[in-house]
Write a structure and sequence with these properties.
By secondary structure, the protein is of the alpha/beta class. Helix content is 31%, strand content 16%. The two termini are 14 Å apart.
């Protein structure tokens, strides 16, 4: 197991932290990341909370309910509350710690605007259950939280490609590091 916040970085990787960046480094990285994830666009924010907050605002979600896993990083409900929405928590499956899709339908209401589907620790979200939910609830936005599961796949299909948007984390505690 890799200890949290203690990644094994080479001297070359550490030296890049002190490199003077060109002004176009971020847009180049965003384009390359979007291509790698099979998306049209990627926009990077300094924190996942900020990215999710702006995503919720861009989708026009306000004064509604957003379903999310009870077992999640605190930034997810923080962004939901900061965007003037209410988090609705769903318990986890014991086998993969992801959100229990059997409970998602039961907490969905006429005020549900979005579901944040999280793939924890490389365990992909159950896309069969997610797609079934999407068919029954076509007006609910599906947002993939891939902070701990870059390009995770369910039965050969990458999870970030299903739904309306995906967000990732790239700080020192995330899988990319």
């Amino acid at each position: 197991m890799i200890p949290r916040l203690k990644p094994d970085l080479s001297w070359h990787e550490i030296a890049t932290l002190f490199k003077i960046n060109k002004l176009d480094d971020v847009p180049e990285f965003e384009c390359a990341f979007a291509t790698l994830m099979g998306k049209k666009h990627a926009i990077f924010f300094p924190y996942g909370r900020t990215g999710l907050l702006f995503l919720l605002e861009a989708l026009g979600i306000s004064d509604q309910e957003i379903i999310c896993p009870a077992y999640t990083c605190v930034v997810v409900p923080h962004a939901i509350v900061l965007s003037r929405n209410e988090p609705v928590f769903v318990d986890s499956n014991p086998e993969d710690f992801n959100m229990n899709w059997d409970q998602v339908e039961s907490v969905t209401s006429s005020n549900t605007a979005a579901v944040i589907a999280t793939s924890l620790f490389g365990n992909p979200v159950n896309l069969d259950a997610l797609k079934d939910y999407m068919k029954k609830n076509p007006n609910v936005f599906i947002i993939q939280d891939c902070a701990h599961s870059y390009a995770a796949s369910w039965k050969g299909e990458q999870v970030q490609k299903v739904g309306h948007a995906a967000f990732y984390g790239s700080n020192i505690s995330k899988i990319i590091t």
